[in-house]
């Protein structure tokens, strides 16, 4: 039996979330010992100039001993984003009719420890 056949046998339960060019796969799989773990796969479609396309995939393996901490961290980060920016999507990539303000007003930050302007933007697409 090939390695691919073995991995297909291990799949217990699956759910798919389509989100624009990205698709997320949540798969419950079985270890050799018969315990379960979760894989989360992000698949993103890229189209070439000639019309052909390819997919890039990134996978996370999440084991039961890490569930509580992982869930707490994800919930904390999502709550932070919603509390800071609300739930409305304001990205130009997601809203074709999004208009950037002509004049942006800069507000001075008194406490530099909370100033996020020193953070570096990171693209997880390169990982």
From TrEMBL:
<dbReference type="Pfam" id="PF11680">
    <property type="entry name" value="DUF3276"/>
</dbReference>
<comment type="similarity">
    <text>Belongs to the PUR DNA-binding protein family.</text>
</comment>
<dbReference type="GO" id="GO:0000977">
    <property type="term" value="F:RNA polymerase II transcription regulatory region sequence-specific DNA binding"/>
</dbReference>
<feature type="region of interest" description="Disordered">
    <location>
        <begin position="100"/>
        <end position="127"/>
    </location>
</feature>
<dbReference type="GO" id="GO:0032422">
    <property type="term" value="F:purine-rich negative regulatory element binding"/>
</dbReference>
<dbReference type="InterPro" id="IPR006628">
    <property type="entry name" value="PUR-bd_fam"/>
</dbReference>
<keyword id="KW-0238">DNA-binding</keyword>
<protein>
    <recommendedName>
        <fullName>DNA-binding protein</fullName>
    </recommendedName>
</protein>
<feature type="compositionally biased region" description="Polar residues">
    <location>
        <begin position="110"/>
        <end position="121"/>
    </location>
</feature>
